[in-house]
Amino acid sequence: MRPADLSKVFQSVSAVFQDCNLYIISRPDHVMFCREVLSGSFELLDFDVVPAKPAADVRKLFFPLDSERKLIVFLPADTYPDSEAAAHMIESLLQLIFLQENERPKTPVEALFLTRLFQAATHEDTTYIALLAAEQKIDFSIDRAVCILQPANPPFVSSNSEAVIHAIRRFISSESEDFAGLTAMGEIVLCHALPGGKPLRRTQEEEFFSAMQQYLWNIFRMRFVVSVGVPVKEIVDYPFSIQLARLALQHSGDKSPIIFGRYFLMEYMLTILPEQTLHHFLVPYIRILEDTPSLLETVEAFVSSNFEIGAAAVKNYVHRNTMVFRLNQLRQAVHLDPIQNDSHRFLLMLVHTYYKCFHSAADHAQ
After folding, report:
1. How confident is the model at residue 106 (pLDDT cuts 50, 70, 90)?
2. By residue range, what is the domain housing residue 26?
3. Single residue among 216, 238, 263 that ends a domain in this structure
4. pTM, 2 dp
């Protein structure tokens, strides 16, 4: 956010909550705006403000303003017994401020750039994209992960997509090398730069995307699922990163708010292998399993339990000895020993993934 916007946020919240401590802080541990009216001492610690020795009971609220800054409010508990109502008031104020800014119109060059970037396949494509990137002042020497933001609770009015893109641009700092936009398919995409060109630890990634999700919730009252592709640097690799993010959205079954495409490599492998190859290697096993539903249940429980017999037994509500018996049946039926043989285990994982994500879906469509 621009300094003028931060000042507007601080002044607006200060005018409404005059008997509260207010702070706008930025990384790393810098207080940009501060007003302290409550008794007791407060200190800045690890991108946060904490009471050191408060004399009175206080309630703490915080609101992400962008990827580098957040608003922290301390409310006196006796004046604000319902902190949730105060939080809604502040969120409404922030929403009004954020939506007052007019959207920067999307230029034809910007729209064309994103469309071509995610379809790059030839040397001519990369040359043209590099020229477009120079016009947009985008540096492709930086590692980025392509992320797709999908509304968690459809229906979502597509006309709101531009407003979401604008909000994302406001969330990422002006110094950031991130860029966001809409694909030709209407997907909301953020190309997130990795600091220092190194992959972030999962906790760092989740912190960034959780703050962005909360920021969008404050404005639109809508939850977004974030699917994160693998880090890439070369222009020709951007299509791969977004494809993996799409696959993760399609095949994730755990309803997580943040999904990482790097955990869906097997699904990706199955999309690029020729159908004839998949049919030759995998379908014979699937036919055997479909003929014996108990074996199909055994495979599902065993694979999803990371090949732990006890956990698989619990998942199928059977005794461990029963699961051992069923695994022996599986070994005799398909001639695979996933416990003793790593290659057999990998093949069984492929069979399971192909059946779950592709084969059963195709049968259902027919």
Report:
1. very low
2. 3-100
3. 263
4. 0.67
